[in-house]
Amino acid sequence: MDLCALHIKPNIPIFNHPNSSPKFAPFDLPKVFQITVPKSMLYSNRSIIVRANGNKNSHNDPDSSSSAGNGDHSVPEGEGNNHAESHKPSDTGTPKFHHKVDWREFRAILVDNKQLLLNKQDEGAVQEPKRLGSKWAHPLTSPETGCVLVATEKLDGVQTFERSVVFLLGSGTRHPQEGPFGVIINRPLNKKIKNMKPTNLHLATTFSDCQLHFGGPLEASIYLLKTKGKESFLDFEEVVPGLCFGSRNSLDQASALVKSGVLKPQDFRFFVGYAGWQLDQLREEIEAGFWHVAACSSNLIFGRIQSSSSEGLWEEILQLMGGSYAELSRKPKRDI
């Protein structure tokens, strides 16, 4: 069984717009889900049909657009990533990379020290700015590529997204088929790739012992890779310095990096499924109080992915954000 043919029954709590998501869907059989959004969870009752079609020619059918959607160039396609291909070096022999500075760390230092000054303002004491720790998180006013969406208590009782953390791989555009998308990074499946008997040679050999993670209710297979230091490889889409993502079409390059000793299998995380929205849809969900938006350190994201606790990362990010966010991390789940 191929990793890209895994079937996981989705449980979609909010609504996924039928035109918001990537066109690559690795499954062969179409699925149709009826989604009803209760009034208590959004502004009005909504009933939406989401169709995920794995046929390569599904874009010819106007009714075949789905949450696994058609025409999104922000996510790699099942058979090819046009955006990633345009950045490939002509020499396919030795992996090439370039150095990137993580401006997010600089911003985090500014946010951290601003908060420190505000806390000390009433005391009239002057305190030297402190160094940023290896793990950090702070709130953002709006989503951006590389941020995390942290589920609020309004999603308690909603199985798919309850106390979830979504790593946003793309922030999306106004184009209806280029919406924000990401993967849930705190839902380990307790299965290894080899347990699924993959037909892909690289998955069956190089990555056979890698753990699988549930990435979201929409049908696709995506993996994250942690690069060495601040380098980003040109064969993959960089999300933040030190973290890239790829899909089925880039497994050859991923395997080559492992075989050449540049990376190890432990530097990869494989996800079954992903989450996707339209741009305005995600903003509405944030404004409605379903998500807290935050920036956090890359090692926090990747390091906790392998944790067996679904809520560990959720709690840690909220605690690092401080204030009312830290209080939320200590609250028991609401009874729905």
TrEMBL record:
InterPro entries hit by this protein: AlgH-like
Biased composition (Basic and acidic residues): 74-90
Pfam family, one: DUF179
The species this protein was found in: Helianthus annuus
Region of interest called Disordered, as start-end residue ranges on this chain: 53-97
Native organism taxonomy: Eukaryota, Viridiplantae, Streptophyta, Embryophyta, Tracheophyta
Name of the protein: Electron transporter
